[in-house]
Each structure stands twice: as structure tokens, then as C-alpha cells.
Amino acid sequence: MQTRLNPHAVAPKAIEPMLALEAYIHASSLEHALIELVKTRASQINGCAYCLHMHTYDARQAGESEARLYLLSAWRESHLYTPRERAALAWTESLTRIADTGAPDADYEPLKAHFSDEEIVTLTLLITTINAWNRIAIGFRTQHPRDRAPRAEAA
Predict the structure, then answer these.
(1) Deepest of 13, 38, 121, 134, by most Cβ within 10 A of its Cβ?
(2) What is the pLDDT of residue 144?
(3) Which of 72, 101, 105 lies closest to 86 in space, CA to CA?
(4) Cβ-contact 142, 49 below 8 angstroms
(5) pTM, entire model
(6) Triad 99, 100, 102: Cα angle to 5°
């Protein structure tokens, strides 16, 4: 597979708002570990190798366990995730598969017990943003690195 184009080089002004959303999310009250779990789970669903490489690397660098990363696609069957993470992961799956789910109340309501209203908005922007990055990376056939750490400025 060959990269089609580099959107950062071709249209940097178009990418700036995406990077601003990333900065907002990382400055929010959402924990870094939660952010990386959400990004990884959405990227698993979407099949984005570039983003999976990046976010599993970033999660490990921040201290995330290999077991939690390996079991993430089966989080519902694992006791390794907190109730807050479970609510976020359910919302992640619901919004990532929105054409099939319609974002049901059953996935939204549990958020209220673990997140403030502002955090729910931020979490929703996080999920929206990683889904956009996945589409950009997959659409332009962005290749993940083979022998180096992922670029920090991308998704």
C-alpha cells in the first residue's frame, strides 16, 4: 500500500482546526490514559493501522499496561477497566458505529454517573476527532512507522 498524499503538507491550514481540537482535549480534565484508550478503541473499530500504532505506543509510553491494550477490543468481558472507562468505551463504540447504533440512551445515560456535562462534551469531541483522524489516515493511506516512534503532532 502506498501513501496517497500527506494532508499536513498539502493543506496545513485545513489541519489546524483538528490540531486545535487535540490541544483542547489534552488540556481538559480527561485523563491521558482514558484519552488513549478511547483513541485506540475507535481506531480498532475503524481498522486504522496508523492510529493504532500511534495510540498504543503513546499509551505504553504513559504507563498503560500491555494487558489492558491487548484486551481492549473485549473490554466488556474484562475486569481491567474502571466504570468510568467502561462508560467512555461504550460511548466510543456507539458514536463510532453511529449508523448502526443511533447513539442510544443505554450508552449515553451511564456517562452521567462518571463525567460532568463538560466532560461529556469533551469526550464526544474526542471520539469525533479520532474518527476524523482515522478517516484521514485511512483515506490517504498514511503508513505507520516501522522503526521509530509515531509523530507527536498527528492524531
Answers:
(1) 38
(2) 87
(3) 72
(4) no
(5) 0.91
(6) 70
